[in-house]
């Protein structure tokens, strides 16, 4: 079958003037609120652990935006004749500096709290190696009393993202050999099938280690990435209207409020269904939202990734120090948000931004 020429310039089709950096930051901050309420078990405004779905869309939104922007970056690399090692080098520059700084900070906190003194060299080496190789899900025994008992429970999404990076060039090559519609149809079939399979088997808390590893790959979340790819490819032909975006927001909350909490397996399917209106409303904000949002992130920087990395560390510090007994839920959320954003600012300006200058190509250029 002939190559798909209609998609050849997709990588240059995304508008440069957009609010996607703000969207990623918004997604990260909703995850912060969601996790403070859940792990510390406090009330934030009207939100409690039992009705915490109000801030549950952060991770799905991350995956949707990744599908849109990472696939666009890969197509730009292909369309401009660049080698795939440049694409992977760009991805390394985006993830490694912030993740490695988070590792260093986490080790310092663990050392200051006396946890490293009880650790064996093998445990410390395994912990460091898991971060260095982008699978930071290893949880050694010596952190059992560190806050919630997990070093950083949010970092399961890192191997999910990285595994998606690995397959994206294959999807671009598939599009070149067939066409866009055939490629995205296959992605949707595989994505929906993997999601249903994981909900039926892997979503069970008693699942085998094989299914746990499956859950750390892109496969159960490929549907979210596919949504982003579809919107990124067809955004010019989609009518972006504020009233429709508002209806989509209402529909998103109607699905999550009435559907989440039945079981962990059902939650996987409910979140996937809710991702469809979420994708529309979020993209409307990214494309049509007020310019003040993009001016804000252009001045302060892209703080989303570091905010996501650091917030669980500060939640563990809150649990370890007993601040939860002294402050209200609103004060705790504000404190964790402030600490997270402050460290994210330092990480962006002194590590991430200088590293990103080493990129040889970018969607922003």
Overview of this structure, please?
- The protein has 365 residues and is an all-alpha fold.
- The protein has one domain.
- The chain has helices at 20-40, 58-79, 84-112, 121-132, 157-177, 180-202, 209-214, 222-234, 242-259, 264-288, 291-300, 304-321, 329-356.
- Helix 2 runs parallel beside helix 5 (157-177) and helix 9 runs antiparallel to helix 10 (264-288).
- It starts with 19 loop residues before the first helix and ends in a 9-residue tail after the last helix.
How many beta-strand runs?
A: 0
Helical segment count: 13
Number of individual domains: 1
Secondary-structure class: mainly alpha
Q: What is the succession of H and E elements?
A: HHHHHHHHHHHHH
Low-confidence stretches: 1-12
Shape: globular
